[in-house]
UniProtKB/TrEMBL annotation:
Pathway: Cofactor biosynthesis; thiamine diphosphate biosynthesis; thiamine diphosphate from thiamine phosphate: step 1/1. Reaction mechanism of ThiL seems to utilize a direct, inline transfer of the gamma-phosphate of ATP to TMP rather than a phosphorylated enzyme intermediate. The keyword Protein transport does not apply. It comes from Natronospira proteinivora. GO terms for molecular function: thiamine-phosphate kinase activity. This is Thiamine-monophosphate kinase. Mg(2+) 3 binds at residues 30, 74, 209. Mg(2+) 2 binds at residues 46, 74.
Length: 322
């Protein structure tokens, strides 16, 4: 969620929601938490639109996969187990071949993730897909507001690949080589780090999924926690494919490129070794990229220890939008 989107929610919606015993976590996090009987359930929803979140010529399977994957990532960041899904599908027309491809992508990922499609809605209009996920927490909800000065900042996987893949998808249409195909796949088929969810519930103080870029999403975590951070650019994890394709731009892509859907978390120093080891046992790489600081500022240091200018992540709404 970009800063502009966050401001709109704060101005028009957040003040209308009263705290309630059955809503321990409400607006302002990766998802809500509702109390159902004696069980706390995480509740998330994301919408993806044609020509905003995916190109008009994206394969149906990629659109279906992506619609679910971006929601799975929110569930992971909260330390929750996704169980049930609602689907809202808006179609400009009935294209049976595209729908078959779309449903294959969506339901294949659902099966792999232990998610059941429980219902939804279908209507006519510009192509848009909204998925709602519900599922139990592994423990206490991991929120954006729990980071403390001295915590280490860890990020899963590699950064910048999806933004490079988007640039390839929007390119001149030439056939992609092996490196470009790998980056394109990272953009079209994001992979939620489901095995990381229970580990975050045990070890992380705060977490957020990276949809709009590291700088933009970290800013939200810092604001929610009332802290600052220092990031070291040389520690940002980057794939071989990204370095082969865009080495000179890799710092900028890793800092501000969106759509990676990796997980950023704040972890007490004494818990870092255990979390990194347990994540590695699940095939997930975690990289220590910096630390939480007392002040409100976010500072990124280059390889020489000098501050670098920051670029905001993706925003659906420009500063002039009302």
């Amino acid at each position: 969620m970009s800063q502009r989107e966050f401001d709109l929610i704060q101005r028009y919606f957040r003040q209308a929601v009263s705290p309630a015993a059955d809503l321990p976590v409400g607006i302002g996090d990766d998802g809500a938490v509702v109390l159902a009987g004696n069980t706390n359930l995480a509740w998330v929803m994301d919408t993806i639109n044609e020509d905003v979140h995916f190109p008009h010529d994206a394969p149906g399977a990629a659109v279906g996969h992506r619609a679910l994957a971006v929601n799975l990532s929110d569930m992971v960041a909260m330390g929750a187990q996704p169980r049930w899904m609602l689907l809202s599908l808006c179609l400009p027309e009935v294209d049976e071949a595209w729908l078959a491809d779309f449903s294959d992508g969506l339901l294949s990922l659902a099966r792999d993730s232990g998610v059941t499609l429980a219902g939804g809605d279908t209507t006519r209009g510009p192509l848009s897909v909204a998925v709602t996920l519900l599922g139990p927490l592994h423990g206490q909800a991991v929120q954006r507001s729990g980071a403390r000065p001295g915590d280490r900042l860890l990020v899963s996987g590699t950064l910048g690949d999806a933004r490079a893949g988007l640039d390839i998808a929007l390119g001149d249409g030439h056939a992609a080589d092996a490196v470009e195909s790998e980056l394109l796949k990272r953009y079209l088929y994001p992979q939620a780090r489901l095995a990381l969810s229970p580990l975050l519930a045990r070890h992380a103080r705060a977490a957020i999924d990276l949809s709009d870029g590291l700088v933009g999403d970290l800013t939200h975590l810092l604001s929610a926690s009332g802290v600052g951070a220092t990031i070291h650019s040389q520690r940002l994890p980057r794939s071989r494919a990204l370095m082969a394709h865009a080495e000179e731009e890799s710092d900028a892509l890793a800092l501000s490129g969106g759509d990676d859907y990796e997980i950023l978390c704040a972890v007490a120093p004494e818990a870092v070794e255990t979390l990194v080891r347990e994540a590695a046992a699940e095939g997930i790489m975690l990289s220590d990229i910096g630390e939480i600081t007392q002040g409100p500022e976010l500072t990124v240091l280059d390889r020489d220890g000098q501050p670098v200018p920051l670029e905001a992540g993706f925003s659906h709404f420009g500063d002039d939008d009302a």
